[in-house]
Design brief:
The chain is an alpha/beta fold and 256 residues long. Helix content is 37%, strand content 25%. The N and C termini lie far apart (60 Å).
Length: 256
């Protein structure tokens, strides 16, 4: 695999009994790029991320992440990547600083470097006045900011983000968007982003993949997808591809 490619999959599949969650996925994600993974609930996006991040063994096929084999080098993949899952856990009895110190230790980061990064990330996220408060006192949006910080604090080569802005207000979402773009451009960090937010994906992602019923049906830049489908924006294209267009004539039919 070329050093310029951080993710390469060939016929990657995952079955849960008779359910085919991901079917023969063939995909390349280049280093320093921002890849958006869209699809309905249950399409297989999170299963794909769990396989690529080393948390779940594939049923068949092959994949390489940061040069490591998903079958044989799962620990190495975990060390080279950062992961923000859709429903992450937090230690509510720790402060934000203590939680980030814990995450740093897990990634062999300590001392002055770690604490400097914690201070700067807390300031960037607008949490410098609350960094020593227990996480149980944080709002859901504040917790999400801490989780974003914990995902990038060790400067992973590749970051998996599953619905990174789901609990954030517009200002915080804009901050995360700019942070992703800056890291991709200035540090060549690769981002693999699962999201339902088509406007976020359109703004941030250079390449979009649309997964439906475990199958990658569409791949291209947002502009290419919009042009090929013949619509105004990515949201319209997405709805046409996955069959989610709204029939307004039926919205109030339940009242009859």
């Amino acid at each position: 695999m070329s050093n310029s490619v951080d993710i390469s999959t060939k016929e990657l599949s995952k079955n849960f009994g008779n359910i085919r969650a991901v079917v023969n996925l063939n995909l390349e994600v280049r280093r320093g790029s921002t890849f958006g993974f869209l699809g309905p609930n249950g399409a297989g996006k999170t299963t794909t991320v769990r396989m690529l991040s080393g948390l779940l063994r594939p049923t068949s096929g092959t994949a390489s992440v940061c040069g490591f084999d998903v079958h044989k080098q799962r620990d190495e993949i975990k060390g080279a990547t950062g992961l923000l899952p859709e429903a992450p856990g937090l230690y509510s009895k720790l402060s934000a600083v203590e939680f980030l110190e814990f995450i740093g230790a897990l990634n062999d980061l300590a001392g002055e470097t770690l604490h400097r990064r914690i201070d700067r990330l807390m300031a960037l996220m607008g949490l410098e006045g609350r960094q020593n408060d227990l996480l149980e006192s944080y709002s859901s949006g504040m917790k999400q900011k801490v989780l974003v910080a914990s995902t990038i604090i060790h400067e992973p080569r590749l970051v998996f983000l599953d619905e990174p802005t789901s609990r954030l207000d517009p200002a915080a979402s804009a901050l995360v968007k700019e942070l992703i773009l800056a890291m991709a451009e200035e540090t060549e960090t690769t981002f693999f982003i699962c999201t339902h937010m088509t406007d976020f994906a359109e703004d941030v992602c250079g390449t979009i993949g649309i997964l439906n019923e475990g199958i990658l049906t569409t791949l291209g830049s947002p502009e290419e997808i919009v042009q090929n489908i013949g619509v105004r924006d990515l949201e319209e294209a997405y709805l046409k591809i996955v069959g989610g267009e709204v029939d307004r004539s039926r919205l109030l039919a339940w009242r009859d």
